[in-house]
Write a structure and sequence with these properties.
Structural class: alpha/beta
Radius of gyration: 20 Å
Number of helices: 7
Largest sheet: 5 strands, parallel
Order of helices and strands: EHEHEHEHEHEEEEEHEEEEEH
Helix content: 25-40%
Distance between the termini: 27 Å
Number of strands: 15
Length: about 230
């Protein structure tokens, strides 16, 4: 799976910590670096033209984020953030992808990231669709991994659970994670791997995907707690 390469610039360490925490929850987003200093961020972008997305604070002491973005060439996609709503118009005049008004929620952050994903796919720069072809009996079945809610071990097979169908493939969970698994998927039990994007709810000993309750293995409980901060 291709990911969106991003950096973030903000003069407030707490704001950057929020971006880091939120970015870690977006499976198709790879936050490469964060910067407190505009000059360092500009130099990094000049040396790394493969950066797709810039999270950019507007109100900074050394330079206005909007003025900084005007200077960049080439320009990545930009998502401005600030506590001052009066900057929004100027941001959109620069064709900003989105404008996050602080303090913003993860849901609002994710929505902005989704816009970036759709724009990059539309331009043909990014292909984030994950396709796997598996043998189901005598047929070769196309499985879109983005639509898989969870994977279940069934002897020497695994069963892909999608919202509207199930596909059985001759493969072990270990094989799947080594060969096809991505950062979207997480093992939660020796018999179950879940797609984090489709998690409905998490409790101490169980979690729910597509309204199905799945057990959390004892040896996986800590990693789940760390991942989702529950």
């Amino acid at each position: 799976m291709e990911v969106i390469k991003a950096i973030a610039l903000d003069d407030e360490p707490i704001a950057l910590d929020i971006v880091k925490r939120f970015a870690a929850k977006v499976p198709y987003l790879a936050l490469q670096r964060t910067f407190l200093n505009a000059r360092d961020a500009e130099a990094y972008l000049q040396q790394h033209e493969d950066i797709h997305l810039l999270f950019l604070d507007v109100h900074m002491p050394d330079i206005n984020g909007i003025d900084l973005f005007k200077k960049l060439d080439p320009k990545p996609l930009v998502i401005f953030s600030t506590a001052y709503p009066n900057y929004a118009l100027a941001g959109f005049e620069l064709e900003a992808l989105d404008y996050l008004l602080k303090p913003y929620s993860f849901e609002r952050f994710e929505k902005a990231c989704q816009r970036a994903k759709e724009m990059l796919e539309l331009k043909g720069i990014l292909d984030t669709e994950q396709i796997l072809y598996v043998k189901d009996g005598y047929q070769l079945v196309r499985v879109n991994l983005d639509e898989v809610g969870y994977v279940e071990a069934v002897g020497n097979y695994i069963r892909f659970h999608l919202a509207d169908q199930e596909v059985l493939a001759r493969m072990t969970i270990k094989d799947f994670l080594m060969e096809k698994g991505t950062q979207d998927f997480m093992q939660v039990h020796r018999s179950f791997v879940v797609n984090k994007k489709h998690l409905d709810k998490i409790a101490r000993q169980s979690l729910w995907v597509f309204e199905n309750e799945l057990p959390i293995g004892v040896s996986y409980a800590k990693s789940i707690k760390d991942e989702f901060q529950v």
